[in-house]
Design goal:
Blueprint (H helix, E strand, L loop, with lengths): L1 E2 L5 H17 L3 H16 L4 E2 L6 H10 L1 H15 L9 H20 L7 H23 L1 H4 L1 H6 L5 H28 L9 H28 L2 H15 L7 H8 L5 H4 L4 H12 L4 E4 L2 E4 L6 H30 L2 H4 L1
Antiparallel strand pairs: 1-2, 3-4
Helix pairs in contact: 1-2, 2-4, 4-9, 5-6, 5-9, 6-9, 6-10, 6-11, 6-14, 9-10, 10-14, 10-15, 14-15
Length: 337
């Protein structure tokens, strides 16, 4: 079916009236956002939204760019709704990761007797990237179904919903990063500034990877509702497949002698986590009682760069495939929802 954006002023007024009706019929923040900001964003670009598989990936990318105002608005709305009627509001975004770090410190350093210096920094360095990735994918998977009212009534690039979920995860990432910096200062654990550019590149790769999976799974979840529940289980297993709560070197010692270490790097999140740890924890090894223990890969800067670039290319390809699949499945969203 084709949904045309009004071109004349009278048609535009009629479109805005229809948007008002949508806002009355659907009280969700997403509906209000898309009805108001989405109409202006799409009308400004003079685009005709045709909900069929014939829309090319290039055109979908253009429509997402023209709807960037809607994307920003949806991210802001998600953050506001999360802490609505909360006494501390956004302060919880700082308190929650700080309390999590303190709990990890107590469990691993005091209860379990972890001897690695500043293990909490090593742990949080991996969790920063993982939390962004998992939250973006998990929230993005169910976002189309959860906003069925707006999807059926308002014309806008539906991919924006999954991208907004990843965008809100990026905002929480920034809050967690503030807490991380504070702990690094308190524990006197400065980052390796040489690896900062790679950290930024790894962050971009992680965001694109989460966006691609979020868009892909959100479209599949419309037809197979068990997808959202399945992805929760998959992400739990995926977490333990990354060197976050255990040093990478424990895997290297088990797989290295058999030449199977490459299998571990089939997980695209692993290089990103290792890059975060190499930059923020900054200690590939530590010495305790005269014994040196390896923590991170001993390869140099170029090795990390090659891995991150490989994940970046893979993530971008997945993102394009996700847009294509989303376009093929989008035509029957209204009937399925």
């Amino acid at each position: 079916m084709a949904l045309d954006v009004p071109a004349s002023s009278s048609d535009a007024d009629q479109g805005l009236e229809e948007d008002a009706e949508v806002r009355v019929g659907d009280n969700s923040p997403m509906a209000a956002a898309a009805a108001g900001v989405g109409e202006r964003a799409i009308r400004r670009g003079s685009v005709t939204r045709v909900v069929t598989p014939t829309i090319s990936v290039r055109k979908r990318l253009r429509e997402i760019w023209l709807s960037r105002e809607l994307l920003i608005y949806l991210v802001r709305t998600e953050i506001k709704v999360k802490y609505k009627n909360s006494a501390l509001g956004l302060v919880w975004s700082l308190i929650a990761p700080a309390m999590t770090l303190l709990i990890y410190f107590f469990v691993f350093n005091i209860v379990l007797g972890q001897k690695m210096p500043n293990f909490v920094i090593y742990l949080m360095a991996g969790l920063l990237l993982w939390n962004l990735f998992s939250l973006g994918v998990l929230t993005g998977t169910g976002v189309v179904v959860n906003n069925a009212g707006i999807v059926k009534k308002v014309s806008f690039p539906r991919e924006i919903l999954a991208l907004a979920a990843v965008g809100s995860a990026c905002v929480f990432f920034l809050f967690q990063s503030v807490v991380m910096v504070l702990f690094m200062i308190l524990l006197n654990n400065p980052p390796d500034v040489v690896y900062l550019p790679l950290l930024v590149l790894a962050l971009i790769a992680g965001v694109i990877l989460a966006s691609g999976l979020g868009i892909l799974l959100s479209s599949v979840n419309v037809y197979l509702r068990d997808t959202q529940h399945l992805i929760e289980v998959v992400l739990t297993a995926w977490f333990w497949a990354c060197p976050i709560v255990y040093p990478y070197w424990t895997i290297e010692k088990k797989l290295g002698p058999h030449g199977l270490t490459w299998i571990y790097f089939l997980n695209p999140v692993t290089p990103l986590v290792l890059t975060f740890q190499r930059c923020l924890y900054a200690h590939p090894s530590y010495t305790l009682n005269g014994v040196t223990t390896q923590v991170l890969p001993t390869q140099g800067y170029l090795w990390y760069t090659a891995l991150v670039l490989g994940v970046l290319v893979l993530s971008f390809c997945l993102f394009l495939v996700a847009l294509a699949v989303f376009g093929r499945l989008e035509g029957n969203f209204a009937e399925e929802l």
